[in-house]
Amino acid sequence: MAGFLFGLVLHPSRDVSEVVEIVDRWAVRHGKSLAVRTEDRHRVPPSVELVPAAELAHRSDALISIGGDGTMLGALRSAVRDPKPVLGVHLGKLGFLVEVEPPDLPRALDRLVAHDFIVESRACLACDVCGDDVVAFNDIALVRHPGSGFVTATLAVDGQRYGYYRCDALVISTPTGSTAYSYAAGGPLISPATQAVVVTPSAPMAGISRSVVLSSDETIRLELLPDSAPVAVEIDGIIIRDASTEGAVHVRYQQNAGLVVRLDPRRYAERNQLKLSLLDLPLLPEQLRELLPDGMRKQLNRRELPPPR
């Protein structure tokens, strides 16, 4: 597949040099090209092409996200207007979206160019925030500034007003994002196979106090009331507006907005079972054993063998 171009999306602050070197060596051996945002020029070898951030996804055949879930979400957002397959390379902490560990990366790249993978389609929230168009693959949140009162906003669904919120934060999430901020605020876990939007208040003081689960066909409008505290607006955990005191947020569900590469869907699902067990969904001991890395599981099995007679 001559001319294949991988766009690299790097964690904003972590040292990614080891993984970038693995990708670069593989690309040289296989005659493939790499590109990265111009502002990341100091983090990659000179052979990597530099392109403006707004053009990276469009010019790439696939994206390689190097980091964690936050980096993966950024890669998906960057390609929302022209979705490209995104391969997540895992660094550090547990992630729900990333799949590949650095030692497995060369084989993963072989499979990517050979089309030996499946694509997992992801939905996003298309949001109009006071006139600015943004997208969120996990959630959009209206969050109060500490010590400044409460988020006070009305809820309208398909133009029909249903009530109001008075709380510390309001979180609107996709099924993918239901395991993140929404869950921490007391919201339900939603299967990724479900097409739905969840609106969850954090620490509600008055008004609507429970999560509301809405159809993917319904549109949502949240409007700040005059007595609301100044709020920050976060998209997938990134602040895009600070100390807003008025305005409205319109949210609609958008299908097939992101393409996530899956090389081993069964293994990925099992790993996510383990991660979900950390969210109070316990697994049986034998299930936990099966989710350990192969080397660790074999070592544990040897330790438990009875001594020879």
UniProtKB/TrEMBL annotation:
<feature type="binding site">
    <location>
        <position position="166"/>
    </location>
    <ligand>
        <name>NAD(+)</name>
    </ligand>
</feature>
<dbReference type="GO" id="GO:0003951">
    <property type="term" value="F:NAD+ kinase activity"/>
</dbReference>
<dbReference type="Pfam" id="PF01513">
    <property type="entry name" value="NAD_kinase"/>
</dbReference>
<keyword id="KW-0520">NAD</keyword>
<keyword id="KW-0808">Transferase</keyword>
<keyword id="KW-0067">ATP-binding</keyword>
<comment type="similarity">
    <text>Belongs to the NAD kinase family.</text>
</comment>
<feature type="binding site">
    <location>
        <position position="203"/>
    </location>
    <ligand>
        <name>NAD(+)</name>
    </ligand>
</feature>
<dbReference type="GO" id="GO:0005737">
    <property type="term" value="C:cytoplasm"/>
</dbReference>
<keyword id="KW-0963">Cytoplasm</keyword>
<keyword id="KW-0547">Nucleotide-binding</keyword>
<dbReference type="InterPro" id="IPR017437">
    <property type="entry name" value="ATP-NAD_kinase_PpnK-typ_C"/>
</dbReference>
<feature type="active site" description="Proton acceptor">
    <location>
        <position position="69"/>
    </location>
</feature>
<protein>
    <recommendedName>
        <fullName>NAD kinase</fullName>
        <ecNumber>2.7.1.23</ecNumber>
    </recommendedName>
</protein>
<dbReference type="Pfam" id="PF20143">
    <property type="entry name" value="NAD_kinase_C"/>
</dbReference>
<dbReference type="InterPro" id="IPR016064">
    <property type="entry name" value="NAD/diacylglycerol_kinase_sf"/>
</dbReference>
<dbReference type="GO" id="GO:0006741">
    <property type="term" value="P:NADP+ biosynthetic process"/>
</dbReference>
<dbReference type="GO" id="GO:0005524">
    <property type="term" value="F:ATP binding"/>
</dbReference>
<dbReference type="InterPro" id="IPR002504">
    <property type="entry name" value="NADK"/>
</dbReference>
<comment type="function">
    <text>Involved in the regulation of the intracellular balance of NAD and NADP, and is a key enzyme in the biosynthesis of NADP. Catalyzes specifically the phosphorylation on 2'-hydroxyl of the adenosine moiety of NAD to yield NADP.</text>
</comment>
<dbReference type="InterPro" id="IPR017438">
    <property type="entry name" value="ATP-NAD_kinase_N"/>
</dbReference>
<keyword id="KW-0418">Kinase</keyword>
<feature type="binding site">
    <location>
        <position position="168"/>
    </location>
    <ligand>
        <name>NAD(+)</name>
    </ligand>
</feature>
<feature type="binding site">
    <location>
        <begin position="69"/>
        <end position="70"/>
    </location>
    <ligand>
        <name>NAD(+)</name>
    </ligand>
</feature>
<dbReference type="GO" id="GO:0051287">
    <property type="term" value="F:NAD binding"/>
</dbReference>
<dbReference type="GO" id="GO:0019674">
    <property type="term" value="P:NAD+ metabolic process"/>
</dbReference>
<keyword id="KW-0521">NADP</keyword>
<feature type="binding site">
    <location>
        <begin position="138"/>
        <end position="139"/>
    </location>
    <ligand>
        <name>NAD(+)</name>
    </ligand>
</feature>
<dbReference type="GO" id="GO:0046872">
    <property type="term" value="F:metal ion binding"/>
</dbReference>
